[in-house]
Amino acid sequence: MANYSMQDLKDLREETGAGLADVKKALEEANGDREKALEIIRVKGLKSLSKREGRSAGMGLIGAKVTDTKTGQRGTMVEVNAETDFVVKTDKFINMADKILEAAAESGAETVDDLMKAKTDDGTVKDTLDAVAAIIGEKLDVANVRQLEGEAVDVYLHKSSQDLPPTVGVMVATDKAAASVAHDVAMHIAAYSPEYLTREEIPADVVEKERNTLTETTKAEGKPEAAIAKIVEGRMNGFYKENVLLDQAFAKDPKTTVGKIVEGTKGQVTGFARLQAGE
Fold first, then answer.
1. pLDDT computed for residue 45 by the predictor
2. Which pTM was predicted?
3. What pLDDT, in 10s, does the model give residues 170-208?
4. How confident is the model at residue 8 (pLDDT cuts 50, 70, 90)?
5. Which of 201, 215, 231, 255 is 20 to 30 A (C-alpha) from 114?
6. Domain harbouring 82, CATH code
7. Distance CA 83, CA 275 (A)
8. Are residues 125 and 43 in the same domain?
9. What secondary structure letter does DSSP report for 53?
């Protein structure tokens, strides 16, 4: 007869994120002792870390926070992933992601490699990740980290499902004058995924490639030679509206642009960052 209850099984599974069969086996091996079962799961997980390296961690969450600096504010955003959404919504995974976000904010790490070496109360971010992965039994990874500074930084986190943590995160840096519209701009970015802030930020080779493609397409359509340049310019404007934040039709009022909304504050957006879990 089992010396543990279904509630014990449920609680330990929710705490660890480990598979049902693994939790049941650990409880049986530990004769129902919860702490011993937890240790069994952890030890067995550590032994199998290398076996999970080739697996895909395609589900995750985005965490972000804003801290004050001497010159304004700095936003920090991280993407932390697991293999399944069951794990992503557990307290253990969410608490681990919070630790990683804190380490990113405190260290100012701008690359994943640097973040993995950042300090936590468990040693480093890598140590924290490995320890939780050992208990959960899934591959976990830190996929992205972003830092953004400005006079003011606003954050928007979007949930694709109410029972899961945020899967899309946006940070927008502005001067103080434009801070009043920053959150609306951040929500727009979450929905419309612009690649660049201004036309000037687009690399010259990207613009040239697009212009060449549009020119060849227009010629292939049999348009008059004299009209091709004008047609291509019109289509380039479409390219800018799709990819440049300030050129995009504003989500809350498509009759105007994000640029016009920002201009109305007599301020400016100085930068932005967008992350989507699993992309």
1. 62
2. 0.79
3. 999 999 999 999 999 999 999 999 999 999 999 999 999
4. confident
5. 201
6. 3.30.479.20
7. 18
8. no
9. T
- Written as six digits, the tokens of 35 are 């702490």
In a domain, 54, yes or no: no
Give percent above pLDDT 70 in the chain.
Answer: 92
Tell me 149's DSSP state. E
Residue 101 CB burial class (10 angstroms; 0-12, 13-18, ≥19): buried
Are 108 and 221 part of one and the same domain? no
What is the residue type of 192?
Y
Domain range for 120 is 59-199+246-276
C-alpha pair distances (Å), 141 with each of 3, 57, 144, 209, 278: 35, 7, 9, 35, 11
* Domain-located, residue 53: no
Query: Which residue, chain included where needed, has tokens 């010159």?
Result: 71
Name residues whose C-beta falls within 8 Å of residue 279's C-beta, 6 or more positions apart in sequence.
Answer: none
> What is the pLDDT averaged over residues 88-114?
96
